[in-house]
Amino acid sequence: MGYKVVVCGATGNVGREMLNILAERQFPVDEIVALASRKSLGTDVSFGETTLTTKDLETFDFEGWDIALFAIGSDATKIYGPRAAKAGCMVIDNSSLYRYDPAVPLIVPEVNPDMIDQARNKNIIANPNCSTAQMVVALKPLHDRARIKRVVVSTYQSVSGAGKEGIDELWDQTKGVYVPGQEIDPSKFTKQIAFNVIPHIDVFLEDGTTKEEWKMVAETKKIIDPKIKVTATCVRVPVFVGHSEAVNIEFEDFLDEDEARDILREAPGIMVVDKREDGGYITPLESVGEFATYISRIRQDSTLDNGLNLWCVSDNLRKGAALNAVQIAELYGNRILQQG
What are the Cα distances from residue 96, in Å, to 62, 153, 281, 300? Predict the structure, then answer.
């Protein structure tokens, strides 16, 4: 059985990646259409060996289509998401618009697949923030074993998380460092990103945290367990693709690092690369183009009775966005559409 699939925002970084992953994973597609805004109308995009010409999102009729993957941002989703949902098309949205709506399931398939049963509430499923998605894949199997009390996470997030403008700014500023007269002032970011790190992602909130940090707190609670305490510091780094996270976890019960390593090796969506030697860990560069979330540097925290540290790396355009959306579509197809 195949499905009729819509990809909204098909010319953006995430939209193109959605098309790539649908093809790579051989998602059962009977018919597929790529939609874009008026400014990108008519652009060709690839779907496996096929070339699709984008159609107009504004005038598209979602009636009769099964699944729509949205990668168009909150403002546009606010207009077109309900339109698609009302037409009976299941919306899988990559923006933050619906993540905190109690009637909309926020899903990472390796973590909370049963939430798919709530999908019919609004015909909308939310995709989590990129930094949250990879972290909860690692936290869930450990939480099932020893119950997590508190998480302290520092993220090292690539510029692709800020879209094409972020990638272009890092590229142009890097060239400008070496070519006199071609220096580029910050535009997308608040300070120079080339050869620098910026402890600021999204807007500041009244308590001094940023919205990106708040998202990690709120989404982890919604996806895994509202009792987990989370504090985050989110940092933009001069890496093109791939988010990294240093995660400190405090458990209710003691969990030995060797047992934690074994648990993570068996967990879905995770690859453990953890050798205590030069190069015995994964860096963001090595995660690019891969499906897995990589875990390294698993070790006991000697300052806590029940603490562990680990290093978590993933391709943010994949697990942090496009891959997770496609996995949700697979879950939805298997659990809901096949039930009739």
Answer: 22, 20, 31, 34
- Known catalytic residues? 130, 243
Asked if 166 contacts 176 with a C-beta cutoff of 8 angstroms, the reply is no
pLDDT digits (tens, 9 = 90+) for 69-100: 999 999 999 999 999 999 999 999 999 999 99
- Threshold 0.90, pTM exceeds: yes
Domain boundaries, the chain: 3-127+321-339, 131-316
Do residues 254 and 280 make contact, with C-beta atoms less than 8 angstroms apart?
no
Which fold does the domain 131-316 belong to in CATH?
Dihydrodipicolinate Reductase; domain 2 (3.30.360)
What class is the 3-127+321-339 domain? alpha beta
